[in-house]
Amino acid sequence: MKRPVIAIGLDAADPVMLENWMSQGHLKNLRRLREQGAFTHLDTFDYYRAETPWTTFLTGCSPEKTGYWAPVKLQEGTYDVKEVNAYDFSEFPPFYALGEKYRVAVFDMPQSSLSDEVNGVQVLAWGAHSPLTPSHSQPAGLLDELISKHGEHPTLNKDNANTMDVDALTRLKKNMEIGISRRAAICQDLLQRDNWDLFLTIFGETHSAGHYLWHLSETTDHPLYESVGSQYKGDALLEVFEAIDKAIGEMLTKAPKDANVVVFAAHGMGSNVMDLPSMVFLPELMYRFSFPGKFGLARGKAGTTPGAPITGERAKKCWLRAVWNLKHDSPIKMFLRANLPLKVFNRLESLFGLRQEPDLVSPFDLLSQSEPQYFQPALWYRPFWSQMKAFALPSYSEGYVRINLQGREPNGIVAPSEYNAVCDELSELLYDLKDGRTGKPMVQKIMRTRQSPTDSDPKLPDADLVIIWQDDYTTDVVDSGDLGRIGPVPFHRTGSHRARGFLLAQGPDFPADSDLPLGHALDLAPTILDLMGASIPEHCEGKSMVRKAVAGLVV
User: Quick check: pTM over 0.90?
Assistant: First the structure.
């Protein structure tokens, strides 16, 4: 039976965290939906978990099928990395591109594109986290109309703050809450404009809050809570979610009475176990592996007890500068770099011919060259990539290693006959990597993306090895038996992604206080389509959760 569907995404909202809060009496509107409807957890991919969830949701396809792995891509035949933004949807369109038969409203869906096959309205990049698309709409004037009436989102493309600076984080939180309130008003406005078969919106604030406010929550297990997070009087993360819960309640007052309401997350969040391992430790390990006895960043003293996490004024002012100050150099250069203004140090280095060539390139030089990924330490090593056996690629989640392969890279070093041996050697090195504070292993597993070095399928990822880090504890220092200690390094974002999501559904098609079978993120699009009474495309790899539930009852 065809019924309207209200689909509300909570970007990277963690199901474990939500269930804990609801059990404590928080989030009254989500709790009410849970009591009146059905709930289940969703599995999702444990690789490229930050870069691909929305493409998976929108297409109903895995990264292997779409060939979309990340918004940055190594350009074939070069050592250049280019931003490619969102998937182009030429092969697999957004699931809601249903033609004339269905009226559809999409507001602030991240990492999508406008589709001519949508009979309704589409607004993109009003306030989404990492929208990867221009701010535009269909009809063309709708976005400007909504902004004129309700206002802009204060944190569009600037939903970040230094995690050491509680005042800056408090301002970020307040701006998120302004955006949440405005989002609720816009959604109520749009809900009343037509009898939509599907109304879809995404709260991106859950994603941003998870990354930057995780250590400002009273229930956090992040090492920065004691020294930084405890300065905040309250639970900043919960306060953002309470604002969203209130917004959802307001939105649903304008929803049709016979609508099925679906609240979901395609992936989750936890204490950050990825940023430093993928962004800092892995590039440095690859450098030391290729140049035995040399050090690029954060050379530590193995065998000693690490000091307290770095939380000084320099780290509070600028994470990039604090990390760049850890560049290994002569004692005098390291002293001057750490104590002089950057411009003064650069002039002295140039004046006295102190700069060696090649050398790591600073993030500030990359920024002056208009390199959009200047904040990725992997790119600081790019002057050496052509001389390295393997190098780390920019990452927002797992660790990505590219083998510098002869016949594929312009200055390849590793012969195809040595490819597997190098992969084995790197895997052994990485499995030996330990947390410098606890001695626990850092790597959960390592995936090889190619059956052979000559695999050239254009849908393969750039990485030859994908490193899945452990997700039980956060660290700022690691030890390698062969390559020494890296760190301590100042913490960056305090929340990172987990391979778990959820589906909460309430309406005529869902019995009260019921459970759905365990699903997968691939099941989200088929479930929404099924609830709408629309056909599920053959290319979708998941199944409707409603049909799974019925099948389970039959069995």
Answer: yes
φ and ψ at residue 213, rounded to 5 degrees: -115, 5
Cα-based distances in Å from 143 to 8, 94, 128, 178: 19, 20, 13, 18
- Write phi, then psi, for 486 (nearest 5 degrees): -120, 120
CA angle 42, 262, 6 (to 5 degrees): 150
Q: Are 128 and 112 in contact (CB under 8 A)?
A: no
Q: How many CA atoms lie within 13 A of 138 on its CB side?
A: 16
DSSP, res 277: I
Q: Are strands 5-10 and 198-203 parallel, antiparallel or unpaired?
A: parallel
Cβ-contact 504, 42 below 8 angstroms = no
Over residues 451-495, the pLDDT tens digits come to 999 999 999 999 999 999 999 999 999 999 999 999 999 999 999
> 303-324, pLDDT tens digit by residue?
999 999 999 888 899 999 999 9
Strands 198-203 and 260-265: unpaired
**From start to end of 57-214, where are the E strands?**
72-74, 81-83, 99-107, 118-124, 136-138, 198-203
